[in-house]
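Sequence only, no structure available. Ideas?
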Amino acid sequence: MPIKDYRFTSLPNAPARPMLWVRVVNPDTNLAIIALAIVDTGADDCAFPADVAIKLGHKLDSVAARKTNTAGGQTKVYAHTSRVDILETLPDGMFGNKVLYTIRDAPIDFVEGCSAFLLGRGQFLNKFVLTVDGPRQRFSIRRPQRKRSKRQTAY
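Reply:
I predicted one. Tokens follow.
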């Protein structure tokens, strides 16, 4: 289901930007958290705060940490398999119950010192076509059209 003409979201002390409601789920514990996530074309992967991994029941240091560079400097990242549901945004700006897209069994980066939820290219944006209308502060996301095989082409 396409996300069409969603309004940019403003948070306190931050510019309006493309954001979506997400539900992040640990598939082993079924613990979940719902948050607003920034659609971030500059992020290589989906990145969420490290303390969220703990709330979801992931043992943060049960996987090897890797160092990465962020806008705030170098930090540690722990990748844990998670499910991310993209939820509908209601007209009042809150999240609804309808799941628009699901990213299953994705290695999500839980980042020390990070406070934002970022939907980056690796597990999210590379699967979609993103259209941003900056002047109107609107954005749309849809799955790419499948290529038709020669057999499917109408003559």
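Helices lie at 50-55.
Hope that gets you unstuck.
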